[in-house]
Amino acid sequence: xxxxLIAGLxxxxxxxxxxxxxxxxxxxxxxxxxxxxxxxxxxEGAQCTSNFVxxxxxxxxxxxxxxHCSGTGGSTETDGCLAAxxxxxxxxxxxxxxxxxxxxxxxxxxxxxxxxxxxxxxxxNDFALIRLNATDIGKVNPSIPHWxxxxxxxxxxxxxxxxxxxxxxxxxxGITTLSPKTxxxxxxxxxxxxxxxxxxTPGIPGDSGSAFLDAQGRALGVLSTLAIAPxxxxxxxxxxxxxxxxxxAHTALDAIELVPGDLAFDGDQLPLGL
Length: 274
What we know:
Layout: H1 2-20, E1 40-43, E2 46-49, E3 53-55, E4 61-65, E5 91-94, E6 101-106, H2 107-114, H3 119-124, E7 128-131, E8 162-166, E9 180-189, E10 194-199, E11 211-213, E12 219-226, E13 235-239, H4 240-250, E14 257-258
Antiparallel strand pairs: 1-2, 1-5, 3-4, 3-14, 4-7, 5-6, 6-7, 8-9, 8-11, 9-10, 10-13, 11-12, 12-13
């Protein structure tokens, strides 16, 4: 009798899990997907570049951008614990999508709500998530254009490590041959929140939010700011791993996962532009 009861409970539990668990969505082929890392986003008219694709157990699909892409202040207002942003719930146009997405997370808003005071976190936690309209999920592919990947989440880098990125500033006026970039990092700094990187040409306005991969094709971070001093023409890259940890610790969005690309990472090919 006891064995039958235990077996019955086990079957019931497995059935309950089967009805609540969710498989990863089926992605559009990379060759035909219209929504993917690197497409442009527009938040109240401000143009940025998307980074990585994410999903959760409720079959919601998200694409990332930088938190400062929804900032309402000047371009020099980069302290996320002080700078104002449009609120969560703001509509965001995503190139290639038929409907606007919705900004459901912004690290600047989260840090201000939490009363964050750590200087490194305030300076470099620069990540936001846009939930795509359900009608557009079938148009999404998670692979980074040109390079492929991401293969997983990255950890800290060392000075001299190779990095890869894909920008999409409207200032390039559709010249996609200037989008792939490769370069080197000076290593992880600022309590693990930042990587200072040099690419063949630095990221320009509109490239903000671009995905950065490490030498193994792992998701390193999000293009945040262009440095003027002391390392002129370098870019600061906000660490994605720490950004996700902060989001999970301070919101109910704790089940969102990075989607690996279904195109193999190939860092040996040359970038198309200089």
